[in-house]
Write a structure and sequence with these properties.
single chain, 139 residues, alpha+beta
C-alpha cells in the first residue's frame, strides 16, 4: 500500500474508475486532458494504491487568501465503493494533512454536498469543523 501523486498519464487514468464514482459526469476519454489542464492551475491528484490498483483518490490544490492565509483545499476525495471500511479514506486524509503541514499551510478545507451524509460523518470523525455555508448559482 502506498500513496503517490499522479504524475504520468497512466497514473492519472488509473484514478478514473474511483474518481468517477464521485464525479459520474466525467468521461474517461478526456479525463487525462482535463486533469492536465487543472494541473496548470495547481491541481494535484493523490491516490492510495493497493496491489497496483487505486482504491482512494484525492484531488487538491494549495491556495492563499485573505480569510485563511495559505491552505490546502480538497476538491475531490473518494474511496472505491467496493473498498470502503478498510481505513483507506482515513489514511489518504492523514496524508493530505501531512502534505499541507509540509507545505506550510495553516488550514485544510473542503466543501461537501449537503446530501453526502456518510462523508459528513467521516469528516467530523477526522476532527473537521463545519465553519461556513457555501453558496453558488449557475450562470
Amino acid at each position: 500500500m502506498s500513496i503517490k501523486l499522479a504524475e504520468s498519464d497512466f497514473q492519472i487514468l488509473e484514478c478514473f474508475p474511483v474518481i468517477s464514482q464521485l464525479r459520474p459526469h466525467l468521461e474517461q476519454n478526456n479525463f487525462v486532458e482535463q486533469v492536465r489542464y487543472q494541473m496548470k492551475e495547481g491541481y494535484q491528484l493523490a491516490f492510495l494504491e493497493v496491489e497496483k490498483q487505486a482504491v482512494a483518490v484525492a484531488g487538491f490544490r494549495i491556495f492563499n487568501c485573505l480569510a485563511s492565509g495559505k491552505f490546502l483545499y480538497v476538491d475531490d476525495l473518494v474511496v472505491d465503493e467496493l473498498k470502503r471500511s478498510h481505513s483507506y479514506g482515513q489514511q489518504l486524509f492523514q496524508w493530505l494533512i501531512e502534505y499541507a503541514r509540509n507545505h506550510e499551510c495553516k488550514h485544510l478545507s473542503l466543501d461537501s454536498g449537503v446530501q453526502r451524509f456518510a462523508a459528513h460523518r467521516f469528516y467530523l470523525m477526522q476532527r473537521m469543523s463545519i465553519t461556513s455555508h457555501h453558496f453558488s448559482m449557475e450562470l
